[in-house]
Write the structure tokens for this entry.
Amino acid sequence: MAIPTRLHFPRAQWRRAAACTLLGALALLPGAHAATASAAPPDAAASDPGALGWMQGFPPPEAKRIRYTDSDYFAFPKLRWTACHFRQLMPTVGVSRGPGAAAPLPQRLDAAIDALPFTPLNTRTRMTWAQSLQANYTDGIIVLHDGVVVYERYAGCLQPDGQHGAMSVTKSITGLLGEMLVAEGVLDENDTVGAIIPELARSAFGDATVRQVLEMTTALRYSEDYADPNAEVWQYAAAGSTLPPAPGYSGPRSYYDYLQTVQKQGRHGEAFGYKTINTDTLGWIIARRTGKPVSTLLSERIWTRLGAEQDAYYTVDSSGTPFAGGGFNAGLRDMARLGQLLLQDGRSNGEQVVPAAAIARIRAGGDRRAFAKAGYPLLPGWSYRGMWWVSHNAHGTYMARGVHGQALYIDPAAKVVIARFGSHPVAGNSANDPTTLPAFDALARYLMAQPTR
Amino acid sequence: MAIPTRLHFPRAQWRRAAACTLLGALALLPGAHAATASAAPPDAAASDPGALGWMQGFPPPEAKRIRYTDSDYFAFPKLRWTACHFRQLMPTVGVSRGPGAAAPLPQRLDAAIDALPFTPLNTRTRMTWAQSLQANYTDGIIVLHDGVVVYERYAGCLQPDGQHGAMSVTKSITGLLGEMLVAEGVLDENDTVGAIIPELARSAFGDATVRQVLEMTTALRYSEDYADPNAEVWQYAAAGSTLPPAPGYSGPRSYYDYLQTVQKQGRHGEAFGYKTINTDTLGWIIARRTGKPVSTLLSERIWTRLGAEQDAYYTVDSSGTPFAGGGFNAGLRDMARLGQLLLQDGRSNGEQVVPAAAIARIRAGGDRRAFAKAGYPLLPGWSYRGMWWVSHNAHGTYMARGVHGQALYIDPAAKVVIARFGSHPVAGNSANDPTTLPAFDALARYLMAQPTR
């Protein structure tokens, strides 16, 4: 989710993006992308995984198989299949919804939405909502208005009973758990990480506070620039891989082992720096404080109380640690239920599942000046708090965002929740934001003007 | 599940068994065991995975980690953790229970069962039911009498909401699906495999009938003798592995690719030969005929209609094919629900889920003379039908059996179902049968004498 200076969709970032996913675990990290130009990738219809025949047949033909050991298993176009099938490629841990029944999601579909017009960022050409789904390689999108499903579509690899990688939307879930524990007094946001996790005392995280981790204002010597073969992200990927290490490899063999090696660069608390390792550190803090991995805590505290219709899961590293920074997978409708939980200030099915104070803290947003220093031209005036992206617009909209188009969008004023899974050829969301943010905004405004459902 | 000539528990088969799981996927195949003697393994309490600290802590200490790339990840004592955590080590595919609520399992526990005495095979020393659980390294056991839970225990790695590898109990589930399709006319048991799967026409399976596959009376040049480094089972394991192939490996890369290479040895239909590849061939037949992998068919036809309280899953090979011969994992209570479905002739929660004719075919048993040729001294007079082990005793008892002590035991006359998961040091069930079969029989007789619950 690093941000390029180009605002419009760079026609062939996808080629570089493909080259950027050479390592297995890497694909789960927030991807970057270069801005060099070449031919445009195939569009959503032409790259449909069903049409392309990936992993179809008993057995699939050799040329149509996708393996975890393939260097390009999460590069476009294979990612259009992989996004829905991570557990078939790599080890995972479950997030149980418990033995109960799913809570019904009431539905009153609005047929007018497909034709809703909006103007993409940095263009003058209007586009309809339906066109935006194609433009964004949408695998699934569901819209709740006041808790009622008004729109729901599936494409590509996804079905209502399927699951999809949430990518960095995972971070916002980890952040929600973190803010919940802060609100409950289990975590003190002013504690230093080193005080909670002695193993991190001598790393860059040692003197960072929990709050700085939650807001990603830590000062870390850590690059997620996939185009740089020396970037630390490659070491992180190697540490998290569950494949056999390369001959002679003697580096860290788990996320937690890697985090201990991270060095400081600069001063904490001054600038927002979007780095996945903050979230994995938060996951570690949560595990150490509660005695439970994030997968178990999420199940016990939220997934069993959400009325979820599917179990969810996390990918894990070779020490069994769930990837708190990017490894969450779930069904689309359950993502909408999660969004609705936040919209309802932590209440779900008549129960206060998450303290309202935790949601309020997220909604209040983080340090906008610190955020501005990171340079996100498509997100002017935004901030980052509790690992959520906060717009500070008049509606109080905030989002979870993950590479290749994953989104959970909450507009409190309009009472709108939008959950989207996608498999856009370009990892960075700056590629799809121009056809996403104004579309979501237009839809929220349209729904806000409708009679209550 | 090959059978040694020694009848009593060979004290240190466990050492050889450990050496027998050098390859990853292999661990899921029915293990064999040698009969050489050495020191006895640690007992159930001493090898408890919690007490040993496997994969505990955030992160687990290096010496306590268990990785898929470890040669001994499924050898005793690590197997005592691994048996409950396959999905955290390798890729899998889910078996959904659907969005509904679990069906309650009524419970009226019988405290007298623990003291129930029985005489193990080939000894004169009596043992109690409770002692047998320790002797068998039981991870979980549940007993239904007339549909009511009368006994339920968890130990080792298992909890009521946990999951456990079913090992070759998987075969009986695949067989149940096969018999279901035969009863429904979707499969003709007299068809040859080659007629259904042209890719297998030139293999040993080509001129075998579906029935011969279901009864494992195919004549295959295929050894599952783990002690023989040239045994075909090693090639099968390599084909099914999801790890990167060894340098220079040019063999098959999936179960289905391997099955095409199997050569005939002898004449079909004459002798029972317990070989996992029959079940994977049946899985392929099912997938080809129904257009669905066994994981999907099991979910649609049974797991969503069983009142299951957990999703289940299969391990998969690198082409995404579920391991129909040994890769099923589920919760213990759901295994009991499955047994109760069979006890009720295919009915569950007032619905005919599986045709009664399919269950009747299994209960009728297979060719006892063909079975006798395979030489199972602990199973005299038994047969194998629809991939279930049929006792032909006065109660009409039949079983699903998997290495290291997995069992699903159905006694129609006593209206008793016993589901057990275990992690016995020795793979082959001849090691635990002496303290299992008479215990189960004694309990069924005891319950049969009780008033109806």
